[in-house]
Amino acid sequence: MPRFSRLVHAIEPEIAFEVLARARELAAAGKEVIELEIGDSPFPSTAAAKKAGAAAIRRNDTRYCPSLGIPELRRAAADYLSDAHGLDVRADHIIVGPGAKTFEQLFCEAFVDAGDSVLVFSPHFPTYTANILRRGGRIWFAPLREERQFRPDPADVERFFRVEQRPRAIFLNSPHNPTGGVATAEDLCLIADLVCGRDAMIFSDEPYDQMVWNGPHRSILEHPGMLEQTVAAYTLSKSYSMSGWRIGFAVADPEVVAALGKLTNTALSCVSPIAQWAAVAALQEDHEERDKTMLKFRRKVVLLSQGLDAIDDVSCSMPGGTFYVFPNVKRICERLDITSHGLAMYLLEGADDKLGVACLGGECFGPAGAGFLRFSCAQDDKQIKRAVDFLPGAFANTARVEQFLADHPRFRLSNR
Ligand SMILES: Cc1ncc(COP(=O)(O)O)c(C=O)c1O
């Protein structure tokens, strides 16, 4: 076995992909699995995007292109941010990337040195920690509380600056994965006031900007001075169902964009021009299809959250945004002596021989997620209903739970 770096030992991959692999393995072995674990759209990529991607291949637009992105996509992205969110940005504020995730890494490479502290609200998107650790950053967790609808608390930002010796960066994510929490304009205003003018930067992760269920999407970028201190990441993965194309973009000050471009150049060279042309078409031509799809997502979120909330000992409010629901299952976990991730794995593997429901335990998003499950709505409505109907019987089958815990004692709550 080769000797790996400390990083390889330290980082944990996104567990959703491991559960997905297990779900597919069980399905290949003949079990019916309703997959609600992965945050992907069940819809096809939007029409103009597909056509433009195919056209780029046909005209042989299939070679290297600029590291910052093709000018057409940088312009289209700036227009999108102006039209959709009223932001005053131009093409030179934009850098293209293979999705939004890449910007977590580029942001940390650009701004975090070993020993610098980074505030992460938790539960959190799991790859934030890996990307901060890549740079030897120190992670300072602050809780997202259910009683605050999982909104970031500006008081935690104030405390971060007060108690940490080298506070350097803050990760914000609204609408939030996994909780569905949405920061209010007031939350963002208070946070902006605390950050503005300090030697500190914000990574504002906004993949769900089209999935705010009440009112318009708000970004910290709206606040004066914040464009100079923020890298905000957007993606076509969710709103245009383009996760497999690997295409997104970030907005920042042009000097920051140039620095991120250097990092992209040395890591990736460039993003596939095929995906970039598809994104140009999506942003310019597919908004009607996108909006219709968002309405379908909203209905699915209502269906799933109301269905879950009606189950005994489960409490689930309608999330403010995203296509995730994050029910509190603490009472069930305590009664069955099982961790919430154990409960998720039981629903997939142990509850029934023929049918399984794949979801994630809240712990997949850090210890602060314990006691919750995360379901995505990435299925047709009939399957969502079947999944909800499956749960009460599964929770009540104590013999099956006991057998599952005997086979997997690490999921016993009392073993923690
Ligand atoms: C909060 C958050 N950030 C980033 C990503 C990654 O998105 P992309 O597919 O655009 O890389 C996701 C995807 O699930 C997400 O939920």
What does this structure look like?
The mean pLDDT is 96. This protein has helices at residues 6-10, 15-28, 47-58, 71-85, 102-111, 127-134, 154-163, 185-195, 254-267, 273-285, 287-309, 330-336, 340-350, 381-396, 398-407, and strands spanning 32-35, 94-97, 117-122, 138-143, 167-173, 201-205, 230-235, 248-251, 324-325, 355-358, 360-361, 373-376. Strand 3 (117-122), helix 6 and strand 4 (138-143) form a beta-alpha-beta unit. It is built from 15 helices and twelve strands. The two termini are 31 Å apart. Strands 2-8-7-6-5-3-4 form a seven-stranded mixed beta sheet, with helices on both faces. The chain has two domains: 6-43 and 289-405, Alpha-Beta Complex (Aspartate Aminotransferase, domain 1), CATH 3.90.1150; 48-286, Type I PLP-dependent aspartate aminotransferase-like (Major domain) (Aspartate Aminotransferase, domain 2). Helix 4 (71-85) packs parallel to helix 10 (273-285), helix 5 (102-111) packs parallel to helix 6 and helix 5 packs across helix 9. With 416 residues, it is of the alpha/beta class. It is globular, with a radius of gyration of 21 Å. Pyridoxal-5'-phosphate (PLP) binds at residues 39, 99-101, 125, 173, 177, 205, 207, 235, 237, 243, 248.
